[in-house]
Amino acid sequence: MAFDGITVSAIAHELNSKLNNGRIFKIAQPESDELYLTIKINKEQYRLVISANASIPLVYLSSKNKTSPLTAPTFCMLLRKYINNGRITNIYQPGFERIINIDIEHLNELGDLCKKTLIVELMGKHSNIIFVDDNNKILDSIKHISVRTSSVREVLPGRDYFIPNTTNKQNPLNMDFESFKSEILSKSGPLSKALYSSFTGISPIVSENIIELSSLDSEVAPSDLSPDELYHLYHMFEHFIEQIKEGDFAPVIYYNADHEPKDYSALPLDVYRDLATVSYPSISEVLEQYYSEKDSIARMKQRSADLRMIVHSTLQKFNKKYDLQLKQLKDTEKREKYKVYGELLTTYGYSLTEEDKELKCINYYDNKEITIPVDNTISPIENAKKYFDRYAKLKRTFEALSKITLETKAEIDHLESVSTALDIASSEDDLKEIKEELISYGYIRRKGNEKKAKFKSKPIHISIDENYEIYIGKNNYQNEEVSFKIATGNDWWFHTKKIPGSHIIVKSKIDAPELPDHIYEIAGSLAAYYSKGRESEKVEIDYTQKKHLKRVAGAAPGFVIYHTNYSMISEPKSIEQLHLTEI
Fold first, then answer.
1. Closest Cα to residue 336, out of 263, 273, 268, 387?
2. Secondary structure (3-state) at 447
3. CB of 372 within 8 A of CB of 358?
């Protein structure tokens, strides 16, 4: 979602409710375009992150910290001089702009009470953090903008601060029906564009959502709307804006079918009704989680790219090999026919003449007439021997291929499981463990003096209801550990049916033969999510007790067999979607 006026409004509302009247205890500038303010209020301590990054400008409360440079930048030193130990008196959003103003009171060198304002502009590549006095004079900014850079506004010490009006958009918080109608009807083009281009802080996706709630076509021209349709559109618009005015925010992250974060919002969006959601109590938590997940996914994809390419190309090679072996195996199905030909020629070959090119006789195995091609240049016995030789050759081929195809299929299953493990991997240590597995099985060669990697990759561990613990293996080695080291006899084991995935173990602190229904559902959903079937709507899950599991002799780690099990259908859900916390 764009960092629009609604998101900014939700942030300002949250910050004002938590930080108003708080004291600025510490100021740091870990990046050239980023501030960390530590604020104390009512024995609580908050860390406010303010980033003017051109790609991802952000403001949110965070539990994390960053290492600052040994020498503080000039802007940071200026803020420390004026507002260190200053008291925040108000945090607000001017005119529904993508701007947050933080008013701060402080004492000057003479002990007089003064007011300063830290202005955070969240406008993409134009984002900035500007420090002004009580006369709106710029004292400094984290980015200096001269007339050479912008003909609209200079952002330099000593200049007057103002918000440039370059779009002529209206404040949606001040709209009545007549103003709304006049503004919308003045626009040409599709209705969706008319809506977001008319009002400050309304993003295209919010525009689409309001039109969706109005049951209108977003592509229709505003002038084509009937009076009733126009009023209904205004009513939905007003309802949406009323939620913002009242601070009735419901922050949420939306997830794609592959369970990657697609978007976030401060208010529920009907246009995403078919997507999986995870709700949060604050917009800060949404922003921190959303961008953390996006960053983690991007980094993991980049770091796992080489391993994925190796696994993919090796899988292709084995799949081609397996297809060829199956074709050759199918050709050996003719072997029994050649054996029968040889036996019948041995029995009835005496009736052939020198001119005969085939033998017609009764097959004494099924009492039906059969026609056997023969070579009339050689004797019936030699023809029979020829068929017996073909039979013997195909039999040997069948016996060899029967073993080889099983070995090739085992290689494919192993590589498929590694491919799934790469999808599940959530840390660099996970990737190191997967790489070690590929090396140990000969898919990758260790380079020169490269030593065995050190890592601390562990299965996922979750505690539920204080009575149940769940362990999730993220790769084959971890699956082996979960199933045969962590699990004991009566623990319950969950796994996707006939497709690669994690081994899930549920350990109970209660002596009971069965698990509660909700624990079965949670374990089934996690087994479906941590598998190759995570993009499916429903996945079949096998579950049994650990005592029924056996290792597959000679197989890769994490491969098991079992003959006693139950099955269930589960919807893939992540730990976050199930509102669980990893220990």
1. 387
2. coil
3. yes
Length of the chain: 583
Q: Are 243 and 265 in contact (CB under 8 A)?
A: no
- 361: burial class by Cβ within 10 Å (0-12, 13-18, 19+)? middle
303-339 pLDDT, tens digit each: 888 899 999 999 999 999 999 999 999 989 889 999 9
Q: Three-class SS of residue 543?
A: strand
Helices 177-185, 191-198: crossing angle, 10 deg rounding: 120
Position 54 scores a pLDDT of 87
Q: What is the dihedral of CA 403, 408, 413, 417, to 10 degrees?
A: 140
Q: Which two tokens stand for residue 495?
A: 């796994």
**pTM greater than the 0.85 cutoff:** no
Q: What is the pLDDT of residue 190?
A: 92
| Closest listed residue to residue 478, CA positions, set 530, 406, 412, 552 | 530
Residues 563 and 504: beta-carbon distance below 8 Å: no
Are residues 51 and 59 in contact, defined by beta-carbon separation less than 8 angstroms?
Answer: yes
CB 165 within 8 A of CB 193: no
The phi and psi torsions of 443 (rounded to 5 degrees) equal -80, -25
Q: Is the pLDDT of residue 258 over 70?
A: no
Q: What strands lie across the sheet with 261-265, from one edge to the other?
A: 261-265, 252-255, 276-279
Instruction: Give dist(CA 327, CA 363) in Å, integer.
Output: 28
Instruction: Output the six-digit token pair for 130.
Output: 């500007």
Q: How many CA atoms lie within 13 A of 95 on its CB side?
A: 12
Whole-angstrom distance, CA of residue 161 vs CA of residue 171? 20
pLDDT of residue 530: 93
Which DSSP letter does residue 143 get?
S
Asked if residue 150 lies in contact with residue 140, where contact means CB atoms within 8 angstroms, the answer is: no
Cβ neighbour number for residue 405 with a 10 Å cutoff: 17
